[in-house]
């Protein structure tokens, strides 16, 4: 009367869903490194990001790429790049297409021309800053950066916290 179709209980078949395809936010970028024992005298240009841990004298021109000067990096050079990140020492002008960031260990003696500039607490800077939003479009941007050196001032960024100053903490 009642007929069993299968003596063994049927297992549910595993459901597989294809993994979602995640598109990278931006294509993977190649990165070149000038190591701590390397010294370069001359102009540097190219089509990849650059990390400088050694010494450079001359000019660095990477308008469409990022340049990072590591803690051991020492430059006597003008730098033109999309984003400039300074942790070491630079004597020269910085032209950032998007941003210039001077980290706590950074020391810059020169002028900065970029739409966005950030100086971390403890960083050292002597020069002028021009935050024009169209720095990358100005053909004489380097000349403008040099012209500001006559009015250069030295700044040491040191932001006191409210915990250190009782007068501020009562506000």
Description of the molecule:
This protein is 6% helix and 43% strand. The chain has two helices and 13 strands; from the N terminus they run E-E-E-E-E-E-E-E-E-E-E-E-H-E-H. Strands 1, 2, 3, 4, 5, 6, 7, 8, 9, 10, 11, 12 and 13 form a 13-stranded mixed beta sheet that branches. The chain is mainly β and 171 residues long. The model is unreliable at 148-171 (pLDDT under 50).
CA-based shape: elongated
Helix vs. strand class = mainly beta
Q: How many whole angstroms does the radius of gyration measure?
A: 26 Å
End-to-end Cα distance = 89 Å
List keywords for this structure.
disordered C terminus; elongated; single chain; 171 residues; mainly beta; 13-stranded mixed beta sheet; 13 strands; 2 helices
Question: What is the structure about, briefly put?
Answer:
The chain is mainly beta and 171 residues long. It has 2 helices and 13 strands, in the order E-E-E-E-E-E-E-E-E-E-E-E-H-E-H.
What's the arrangement of secondary structure elements?
Elements: E1 31-34, E2 39-45, E3 49-52, E4 55-69, E5 74-86, E6 89-91, E7 94-102, E8 107-109, E9 112-113, E10 117-119, E11 124-127, E12 129-130, H1 141-147, E13 153-156, H2 166-169
Parallel strand pairs: 1-3, 2-4, 3-4, 4-5, 5-6, 5-7, 6-8, 7-9, 7-10, 8-11, 9-12
Antiparallel strand pairs: 11-13
